[in-house]
Structures are given as structure tokens and as C-alpha cells.
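Sharing a chain and its predicted structure for anyone who wants a worked example. Both blocks are below, sequence first, C-alpha cells second.
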Amino acid sequence: MKYDISNSIAPAMPTLRKGTECIKILLTQVSKDMREPLVPMLFPILGAHVSGTEFQYPDLTWKELCGMMANLVAESGGNKGQLSGLVEAISRNLRNHDDIEMKKLVEWQRQVKTRGANKDKPERPDVSFWFPPSDVTNPAFIQNAMACERLGGRTQYLNLPEVEMADRMCGGHKQVTQVLRNIYDRQRAGALRATADGVTGNPILRANLTISSTPVAARKFYKYELFNGTFGRMVFSYKARASRSGRIPRQGKYKEEFFRKLDSYLTRLDICKGRYVIRPLNKLIDCLAQDMASLADLTDDDVLWDISKRALVSAWKAGCVMWVLNNQKWTSSMSDLVEWLVYHDLWSKMQLFADLLIKDADATSEARRRGPKNMLNSLPDSFNEAQLEALRMQLDKSKEGTNKQLNMWVFRKFITFDSQTGLYTKTDEYKKK
């Protein structure tokens, strides 16, 4: 485990080396303070360019690069708007496709309006939008999902500048959890209407989303979705409030040379078809799954364990995107970035929602509200059961769980037990990690 998610400082992104050139090119157009927060936001946009392709996850299921969702969180005036420039740059071909489709739809609407009540009105053209407007209603979203499925199984990509806009897309806030979970899981989810005036269909929801919000808006929006699976499915990228430097951040100019380089990578995404197994990536995810189990044991945190499972899937999909961008080759730098994406997602979630993830938050100590804490790091190299018990009580954890936690630490070879002294000692293996 390279990263400490209990720290208030974000995990430092590894140096981007061989295999991550496309990400480096994109980051040249944003200010330095936004480079790390924007990296997780790039993959849903890039993944929307891949269709007709499946990858095998370590559990042997086949997954498409749809259902990728990421929420950028920063204070008002925190430069979240720089995401829009990257969205438009990456989605130029999607926008061009949609402009043609929109002209067909506008012409059809004009003909319908001019013919009035005539029965011989033209049929609605079969159009699909790959990059729909952010202000989209739920019936329109379902109708477009039907068209995208019918016209090649394409993924529609939506960028929502405000998190509250998801309510309209999902048909109201009460339906948010249902729709977002179906999108992530690539489920069939549509609508059945009793009259011809409504939208009737049951398409596979292939969609990728990027969302921007302030911390207050994010906490309000997800407050009641923390324990039903919705929260874990969303990747969060949090930018903490920066110091008052008094300097205006410099952005890129999006010159022709930038677009020429970018397009060569986007072409690789567009032409990728078929089924693939990326063995180095799957091996990495298996190792990270073990790290997540160890982290949950060190913190004795079931919520962290639950959300880490989907954090692995989301980072794995990002790894699949990088593999395609790198001409279907894997590198160690890509492994480093995938690992960082997992921990950055977990860190962001804990910075934003740590107190809300505790059921009795009002009665919880200030120390516990800061998020999961590696209890073994807070103990001396040699300690007894009473010391861990006291630490658990300080962190509002049950006294009864002390023995179970010690047994798990011994099993994972974090510590050894000396029956003569009654002391537990941290192993050299744990100290090296």
C-alpha cells in the first residue's frame, strides 16, 4: 500500500511515463493545480469512444467501457470549469456526429409543424446522439439509449456541469439511485407507457457521465445514497481548497498541434473492436484487491471495504482505456496510475463523506470523523491487547472486536505474538510496506 488515505493531503499522482502519453498531452491544456484532480475525469470521456468491445474482468465476466461515472468536486471558483475545455476537445467527433443528427431532427420537427393536423406526417427519423445536451429529460435519455442500441450499441456521453442536473436526467431525485446503478451495471432499463404519446422501450443503458459540483452540493445530493451502492459506483475526484496565492492559473491554448496528436490516440479508441483479456492489468487488480482487504483490516472499516470493490472496477476500466490508447500494450507506468486511481477515489470519498458514512455521526468523536485510520500505525512497534483496546474505544469502535482484529493482523503477517511476554510486535514485512 503506497498511499495513506487518512491524510488530509491528496495522494500524490505518480510520474506519467511510457504508456500514458495521451494523458500527458491532455494535461498540457490545464493549469498545474488541476492536473491531478482532472485525471480521473478523463476516462469516462475517452471510454465513450469505444464501442463493440468487451474486456474480461478478473471475476471472468465481460464488461464494456460504458457505465464509467466520475464526479469532480471543488469549491466554487476552484477551476472546475477547465473540465469543459477537455470535454469539448476529446468529444469533437461526437459533437460533429450529433450536429448532423440534430439537423435531421430539426427538419422533421419543421415538417410536422407545417403539416398541422394532417395524418400523413413524416415519421420521426432514426437518430442517435452520442454527446447529448446536459439538459436532457428522462424520456429523452431513454429514447436516445434505444437509438444508440439500435444503431450499433454506441455509448452516449453526458457532461453535467452541476450535480443537480442528474435529477432531470433520472426523472427526479428519488429515481437517481435506480438510474445510476443501472447505468454502471449496463442493465436494461426503460419505460412502458399506456399510450403512444409516451416513450416505450427497454434498452441496455450504455452511458458515461462526468459531473461537477461543490462539496456542499455533493454532500446534499448523495446524502441518502451512501449505503445503497450508488455512492460506491461513482468515482470522486476532490480538489481541496488551495492557499491564497493571488496568481491566476494558466491554461493551454488548444492549438492545432495538440489536436493532431490527440486525434491519433482517439482513432485507436474508435477502431478497437472485439474481446480482450489484459492479463497484466487483471494481475494488478488481484493484487490491489488483497491490499484493499488489508486496508479494511487495518482500519476495521466495513464501509471502506464495500466501496473499495467498485473502486477497483472503475480503475480497471480506466486501465483498459489506457491499454487501447497505448496500442494494446501494457507498461509499469500504467500500473502505477491505475493503483493511484483506486486510492485517490477512496481518499476523495473519505474527505467529503467520512462523517456521513458513520450511522451515528452526531455522537462520533472528531478524530473518527476524519475517515478511516490505520490503527496499527498508531501503536508502538510492540504493544499489548489493552493498548489496541484503548485505541479502538478512542475511535468509537467496539471493545469486543479487539481480539478478532488482532487475530486478523497475525493472519496477514502484520504482527507476531509472543506468548511469554503477551506482546504483539510489528513484522519487518509490514514495516517495509
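Comments welcome. The first strand starts at residue 53 and ends at 56.
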